[in-house]
Structures are given as structure tokens and as C-alpha cells.
């Protein structure tokens, strides 16, 4: 291959007249070009036909499969012209890499990063549904459109892409233990692919997004990127070692929890597993909303003032999913102190149902559970009606008045549940909770949803809640106890029933529960099953459980 600096590019290639150079990559250059016949401006990717790494040829395979997707450039023409191989695609604007270099602050603002997260995950969802892996996710391959599409992030550069669905058999490509050459980029390729030589699949595209987002929020970037591209094997080995040994909790220290959770989630995915794109788009949208930013994923650059907030690397109390699990199980052992007991008339005196209890009015905090104590833990994070501190220590603006997000509705429900004074009201609130969840596209149980369960549990957990326990029929299956099993038995249940079966069985148990205590226990188990399930989605059986719970509460009210 000729030395790229000496390559003389032609003035015209096919129907296109070349203008300024937009960029140069690993194996070619890209120009702004004009169609000589219709005047249309395009980006022309140019490569010598004898290029040893003919990425244009590879890319040409994927563009047809990806046409029509939001944020995927249109392919206007491609072919060879004399010694040149070319691709004519939509002319786009600045790449995130160029914005990264231009930015005047240490790190990106959280709003922009949440927009990038939502859009890039959505692009991957589209590509993956078309059977294509990107395999080279990086800032330089995320490019803004030109007006009027300048708030859309486009994915470019499919030179390393691959069909993970075999075009002939329509099956997922097989995993393999064979040693393989690394394909991807040094900064963001997943640990599995980059450091362990594994076959890339959907999970690795997702992990690359997670690393890219964390990089954007880290002063100086991820530490293995700071010495530049490795020039020797030794330097590459060192980089891989640093990447491989970097613990999620360390590289995400001080960042809002969804970033670490996302990275961990990607690393837990199985080789052929479909990532839950919707869940993570929702998570990052909610993170934006919680911080007072618009829920729209539109990428606005420069970030509109005065909302620009940068995430400082301040250590924050956080709860990982393992801890969350412990918390849910620990809810069963909560010490409720002298909290009033539902359905015992004496306790209703002096309680005004319109006034949330003192606890419910405080913005609850995410706390680190004490593993020994198994005490009361609040899972809720935000009270949107109040002002709160963000990670930067600045006051968080309340979301725009009149806009009721899922998070707001759930937080409000948690407060109303905490303030409820009878079971019939609780039953109605459970129905509302179910309705809020059903109205949502994703049906994912967020932390605000868990806070609703937490509030519900608190209201039900006292054994005296229902004055006259009613007789329960025997659950299906021999020797089953009349009392719903404890959270400690949940692990055993997992092997006895399939995962899906569990929610169905909980739905049956809830209709037979004879006391508030039993209902409280079932609420904990319900939360634990949802939390363990991939995507934390409330399924049909989950809604069946909620309907059963509401009905039971109303009947006992
Ligand atoms: N359609 C486009 N419109 C405007 N600029 C573009 C377009 N496509 C690419 N660029 C610019 O050119 C740069 C290189 O493009 P691209 O990544 O497609 O080329 P490549 O040769 O495959 O590069 P690499 O080897 O770095 O992956 C991009 O980072 C971007 O700045």
C-alpha cells in the first residue's frame, strides 16, 4: 500500500466531484463531494482498490441491510472507479470525538451523556435487529447530522461490522474458544473481546457503549486511554492489563449509579443473549429527568445553559444489584418500631390521610445497607417536589411543572401508600401502581417502582394488620404450607419452579393470603423476582399478582 501521505486523490470519482477532506481513517480518506448531475452533497469514502484492509468493500455489505434506520446514513452510491473504491453516503456533521477534543471542561455534561446513551443504544438495537454487530463503537464513529438533523447521532463506519445472524442458516454465529485476532478499538472494545480474545456478540457492542459513556464522564478519560495508542506489544499488554483489572466500582466512582449498573449488566450478558435495550434507554432517560433535564434524547450542542452540570468525581453512596437483592430480602426482617398498624381502628386516630407521614416527606436517600443488620432501607432516590443535591453538590432544579413522568407518578404513589389508613385505600393504590406500570412502554420496575413496593411492605408488615385472619386454602402441590414461603425459601423455589412460574404462583398465593403479614411477605418476594429477572420487567403474571394483591386488600379493607 502506498504511503498515505503521498497518495494523490483524484478530482472526480464516478459522478462525484471531490471537495475538502473531512477525515482520514485506518484505511482511507473521506471527502465532502458533490454529485455532478444533481448537485447533491455527500460524504465520499475513498480507498485504493488494492488496499490490504479493504474496509469499503466490507462496509458495502452492511449498508443495504441497515438502510432506513434512524441515525444510519443513506448510501447514495458505491463501486470502483479506476484504482478507487468509493462509498457515497449522507454528508454529516461533527463527530463526538471532535466535540470531545474541543470541549473546554474536564468532562462532558450529564445531560449530553444521557442523550448519547439513549441514542447510541437505540442505534445498536436497530443494527442488532438487522443482524449486524458494529464492533467498533467509539466517539469518532458517532457523528451528528447536519441541520435539520443536527440533534440526531448517526452511527458510521461499518468496516469492522459483522452479521451475527448467519445469512444462510438464520442462526446466531457460534461461540468459539479458538484464538483469534483482535478486531475493535483499544479504548472501548469489551474486556472479553479485547483482553480475552472471545468472539464478539451483541453484549460486546453494549459494553463498548458503557465504557465510552464512562470515559466521557471521567476527567482525563478512562485511565488506559491516557498514554495514547500503544506502539509496542509491551504497551498493548499493559493497556490490556489495565483494562482487564479495572473494577466497575473504581472506574465509575462518583458517577450516577446507572453507569456502573449498565457496565455490570453488559458484562453479565450471555454470548447469544439479547440485551434489554429498552430498559437502558429508559434508565438513561430517567437519569436525565431526575436531574431536571428534558426527557427527550435529542442531542443539543453546545449544551444549553444554565442547565450544564458536570459530574464531579465525588464518591457517592451507591447500591449495586447484589446489595439491592439483599435489601429486598432484608425487607422481611424490618424493624418497624412503633409504626401504626393498619386496620386497627385505634391507629387511625390523628392520622390525616392527606398528610404524608414525616418520613414520606423527606427526600429519601439511597443508603448502603449494613449486611449484618438487615435493617430498613429505602430504595427510593428522589422526591421530585423538593430540591435535592446532585452529585455536584448543586441544587437540582425541579422538573417542569405539569409534566408527570413515570418517576413522579410512582414517587407520588409511594407517598400516598405511606399515608394510607385502610386496606381499601391500599388496594386502590396498588391498582393505580399497576396502571402506571401498564401505561409505560418498557414496564420496567425502576427504583421509584421498588420504592412503591417498599412503602407497601411497610404498611403491611406488622403481623396485627388484619384483625381477623381468614382461612386460606392449601396451595397447589403436596405438603405446601398454608403460609406463603419466606424470602429465605426463594432460592429453593427457584429450582422447583421455573422463573416464570414464580410470578404465577405468587399471583395464586396472594389471592389466598390471610393476613397483612403474608401479603407483606409476598410483596417482598414479588420485588425479589422482578429484581432478579432480566430487564426487571413486570410481565403479564406480574400484573396478575398486582391485581390479586389489590383485590385481596380491597376484600380485607
Ligand atoms: N458521512 C460523513 N460525513 C461527515 N464526516 C464524516 C462522515 N463519515 C466520516 N466522517 C469523518 O471522517 C472520520 C473517519 O470516518 P470513518 O470512521 O468512516 O473512516 P475510517 O477510514 O473507517 O476511519 P477509522 O479507521 O478511524 O475507523 C470520522 O471520524 C468523521 O469525522
Automatic annotation (TrEMBL):
Q: Which residues form the Protein kinase domain?
A: 16-288
Q: Keywords for this entry?
A: ATP-binding, Kinase, Nucleotide-binding, Transferase
Biased-composition ranges, Basic and acidic residues, are 359-375
Q: Which SUPFAM superfamilies match?
A: Protein kinase-like (PK-like)
Q: Which intervals carry biased composition (Low complexity)? A: 392-402
- List every stretch annotated Disordered: 349-405, 466-492
Q: Which Pfam families match?
A: Pkinase
User: In which residues is ATP bound?
Assistant: 45
A GO molecular function held by the record: protein kinase activity
Please give the PANTHER family that the UniProt record associates with this protein: CASEIN KINASE-RELATED
Q: What is this protein called?
A: CK1/CK1 protein kinase
**Which organism was this protein described from?**
Trametes coccinea (strain BRFM310) (Pycnoporus coccineus)
